[in-house]
Write a structure and sequence with these properties.
Elements: H1 32-38
């Protein structure tokens, strides 16, 4: 196994690559106060934090 050190030539490698799928948002909240409270105007993105893993 090769040992990598910080003095190697890492600028030839990309920092990161991401895959972000397109989101099809079809509706928005009618009540702007509700949208402000949830943090998004799109109900599809309203995913409340429950403090546990999603099953």
């Amino acid at each position: 196994m090769q040992d990598y050190h910080f003095d190697e030539n890492f600028e030839r490698f990309p920092i990161a690559m991401a895959y972000v799928p397109w989101q099809h948002l079809s509706c928005i909240y009618d009540d702007l106060e509700e949208a402000f409270q949830t943090g998004t105007i799109f109900p599809e993105l309203d995913k409340p934090f429950t403090g546990r893993r999603v099953v």
